[in-house]
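Render this sequence as a predicted structure.
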Amino acid sequence: MRKLAVLCLLVCLFSTPLLAGTRPLPRVLVYLKGSHTDLVQGTVEEVLLAQNFKLKDRDQLRNIKEVDAALASGDKNKLLALKYRYGIEVILTGKVNWIFSNEREVYGRTYRYYRAHISMKAIVVDTAQVIYSKSLRFPSETSTTRVLVRLGKKLALLMAKKIRAFWAKAAFQNATFEVVVSKCDYTQLSALERYLKAGSKVLRFARRSFLKQTGIWDVVYKGNRVDLERYLLQCSSPSLKVVRTTANRIELEVGKAAPKPRDVVAPKVQILYPSSGTILKDKVVQVVGRAQDQGGIAKVLVNGKRATVLGKGPNFTASVALKEGKNTIRAVAYDKAGNSSQASVMVYSDQTAPQVSVLYPMDGSKLPRRKITVVVKAVDRNLSKVSINGVLAKKAKIKNTFSALLSFPKDGRYTIVAVGEDIAGNRSTASVKIQVDATPPKVSFKVWINGTVDKPGSRVWVNGVEVPVVEGKWKAQIDIMRVKKVVIIAVDPSGNRTVTVKKLGGN
């Protein structure tokens, strides 16, 4: 019996997340302030939509000051008013900081560097409870706003995880609510009690009173007030609508359900590629973006031309011709109700390759050394790098000049190739041909020595080499740079021999 009890307890514990996970996720309002909020807010909303959260567009709020006042005061009633008016259940608020740090010059171009920091917190509208609060900052200075996108995406994933866990936990807890239904006759009251009794999450309920067509119940429900509201509004007989609610009280009245509101929410559109500030070398760029709307996207126009939707969406693509210099790419998305929104990026087209020339050495030069400092001139407004025979060149003191030290393994003819490349990827080359001759000349010093032999028919050898004997006279050439002594051997016809040794430079 003890083992059976433990097993039942484990089943209950591990089945809890499964039950909680079936609960619909809350409707979230993303409300960020600070620098580049549109960029970060779009990223955060994209992550939440991918996580199956429902969103409320802040641009559709009739009075944005209501949100500021509710968040500043933390007043539960003001926060609750946002829920009744706009259907907001969770507010994801925060601040984006993009603080200027300094300026740096890279290859003749000035870049501005910033420090990035984003903070967010998720607040439950019903109770003003903070679900989760977190801030992230980029560890170093940066010049690109893509850092804000990465920080926003990381924070959004954390917030989505915490909100989902909190919502699942809240769905599993039991709470007692006071339910008040007005304009209700006794037949409708009985039908409502049968509907409550059939509810799987309605643990128990008790009617406190029924007076002047108004019934009051105490309902113990496994979940929160929002879940109970949804359950009551699903009742078809009688049909109910919410009049007002507080933290633990729901007031409803019997009547026809409110007509479906007109779609006034604009779609979400974002250009994924190219990003703003990108430098491109192509004359035509393939733009990729994303457009989303709960009612469906009717069309997307990119610079006035209709884009192609990839598969079932939400991604779209379009070809855009670029002119040299600054270009604006604008995407406008329309939903089926006629609402529209747009996104734009600024890109630069650089279709001109750098101008490269070799200043030293000149073409056809003969150089007496094997290590040579090559100097190159490269001119381009978006110059990225210069390499010489594969060696990355360093910027020299003179404007637009670069140098690199090259080593040649041996004498011979060589070609020096300089390559200039800009940020867009355009490349150009310049080359010169040179001859390396670092070997000094060799000097030899030879002298003639001569002598005589008194016996006719005798033969003479000088340092092992036989020399001709004419009428008893002989001569030989000696390289005094290599030979330190001279050995003369004379042999007569009878075989007699004479050996004479003479040291050079002495007696």
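Summary. The first helix runs from residue 2 to 20. DSSP finds seven helices and 35 strands in the chain.
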